[in-house]
Amino acid sequence: MEVPVINNLNDNGDRQRPKGKDVFKDQQKESESSMESPNLEFEYGDTDTLTAELSLYSYTEEPEFALNRDYFEEDFKSHWIELSVEEQKAYVMQLLDALEVTDRDKRLKVARAILYLAQVFDECDTEMDVLHWSRYNVFLLYDMGIFTALLELLSMEIQACSSAMRKPAISLADSTELVLLTIMYLIVETIRVQTEDDRPEWVAARETFKNELSLLYNGEPFALLLFTMVTKFCSMNAPHFPMKKVLLLLWKTILFTLGGFEELQEMKVRGREHLSLPPLPEDSIKVVRAMRAASPPASAMELIEQQQQQKRGRRSRRPLVKQDSLDTYNERDPFKNDDVRDEEEDPEDTDGGIEGEVDPLDRDVIIQPPPPPPPLRPPSERVNFPKGLPWAPKVEKDIEHFLETSRNKFIGFTLGDTETLVGLPRPIHESVKTLKQHKYVSIAEVQIKREEELQQCPLTLGEEEVEETPAEILYLGMLPNLSQYVIALLKLLLAAAPTSKAKTDSINILADVLPEEMITVLQSMKLGIDVNRHKEIIVKAISALLLLLLKHFKLNHIYQLQFEIVSQHLVFANCIPLILKFFNQNIMSYISAKNICVLDFPHCVVHEMPELTAESLEAGDSNQFCWRNLFSCINLLRILNKLTKWKHSRTMMLVVFKSAPILKRALKVKQAMMQLYVLKLLKIQTKYLGRQWRKSNMKTMSAIYQKVRHRLNDDWAYGNIDARPWDFQAEECALRESIEKFNSRRYDKNKNGDFTPVDNCLQSVLGQRVELPEDFHYSYEMWLEREVFSQSIQWEGLLQNP
């Protein structure tokens, strides 16, 4: 089963646009936006700030804050912050007992009272007070066993959804019973985040809770229960599930139990130490943070204006030209020529390439002063490099290839090793010495060798010792329904994509944001912003979740194993065209989406609400960019890189779907990390795009040289391959075969059944100890009567010939 992708691309990979004057208007807007795009001071990390991550509520849920407080104050008349710890625990025990009543309405009131305790805002004057008391109450609720009780109620709700509602229109009122998810999300997110003033018992509670989430639901990870909710929703068996909160809770659960990017880096370092491998040359996140963003590519309108001005002012005086902004490390670009007319005069190339502050073709235009440089980071966070490329060189399989070529050239035969240099000239010796100094052995290579040995010698090497890591436990639970989970996540990503068009058979992801009744014009404007924000949060959660799963499964077991299994499921479910479809939009407007900050929690419950007008809604906030949208874009680009890296068949999919112009438009976002992953995707498909494309995009090629790591024998910049997608299908088939062998060897209960010796001794077989159920000795007499004494056995049949 594949995720349907709405194809609104033309033959050139661009979105369909109107003709005539509208084209020039659109190009003029793009030109102005690209010229004015500033450097984005974006700090990439696991999550946004705690305040932003706790704002999971839609604007439609604003009246529920007062409702939660009213239900809390029905039975509680005192001031919560003035009670002693014993009195607070006693009241929480009363709420815990009230959760076990059979009346759904009463349970809902108690759940809302617990939710108010997790929010506690009525007795606080500032947002910091709200966060402080919310954190205190969350640890108190967890210590009293609230999370386990909520888990049991959530399991009941999931089982009860078999008779799901078949209403034609589902709104926020249909998912009110699942307020449990909001409480559970607040507990997981608050406990997950560490602060400097955490008490010792809170630190111990965090580690305990982290271990419990891995085996909390019937001995299985809690994340599997949430994955089940996702699949039920996408199969239309539970259309009232609030998917945004389910996905946020699922993402934070995976992040908490498996670890974020810093934990991944630490695990990678420990893994290399365990295998006696040299340490990593650098931390990629720190390297990217030290990079500067390049200037955005020129649009078609800018190129046309430059050509016209060049023709008008060919004989005019030409002032000095500022150096290209891509010279990040103060080096002269070796690929930059004084005469670049052959590179940039192609009017059909709509994106031109990465540009400097001033193009050499536009020398007669008045040079505007450059914008002020962004503030420098503290010295402790900056990574200082010498002049040159930002990445340390890596040599993997280049030594074997280099020696094979050299031996064929100077000797006429090959030896198949990397040590013997007899008969080769002295410069070859020096080259091999230099290559070995930069040789990089990945954890994957060690695991590849180990996996091949286990496949070839299953009896000699015995069973593999599998460490019960959280990632291993999660993968083992996800494996039977892995394809369903992947397809469900991609369906939700498609429904939340800004470029998706509503269809009658598509899933409704707006169930927990739409109000019951129609509203005024002002409220409809607020609802429109809320719907867009709702979709953006879903994209953020899914992109971060998929990236975490890929990275953890890759570190847990790399070669054709857990990472490759998830990757292949994503590719078969049309993940690559789906991500390209996501970027086939005005990415600058998506990055700079506006929010209504005064409606975000906890601001909306602490401060007095100003009067909202149409003008204030249109103006939005004053932030330079939307953190979650830029975070989502980078995550999706990283996922696309992981799917296509070293896979020729998947790289050809990028070429077939005309991804080059789509990715080049994404370079308009002046953020170093996002540009790096876009350039990586352009690099791997450059040799398939032909010489003319490279000639027309030399500025982009120069940016790739300066920002992306390179290999010695990589012919990405000059190779010309006229291949077809089906030329590489054998790779996917071989990969699939290796995946099936791995799953059969490692997870099949009847593994090595063909090699198990048969016991032919009657006494030995009868003497084997058989494990019986615990209650068998209570009913074994009934079993004997039913299965033995009451059965008529025809012993004469044994004497007859068969």
Automatic annotation (TrEMBL):
Compositionally biased region (Basic and acidic residues): 12-32, 329-339
Organism in which the protein naturally occurs: Monopterus albus
Listed Pfam families: DUF3402, N1221
Similarity comment text for this entry: Belongs to the STRIP family.
Transmembrane intervals: none
InterPro entries for this protein: Far11/STRP, Far11/STRP_C, Far11/STRP_N
Extent of Basic residues compositional bias: 311-320
Domain Far11/STRP C-terminal positions: 425-780
Cellular component per GO, a single term: cytosol
Compositional bias of kind Acidic residues: 340-359
Composition skew (Low complexity), residue ranges: 296-310
Protein name, entry field: Striatin interacting protein 2
Pro residues: bias regions: 368-378
Segments for region (Disordered): 1-41, 296-379
Location of the Far11/STRP N-terminal domain: 37-327
Any one biological process term the GO annotation gives: cytoskeleton organization
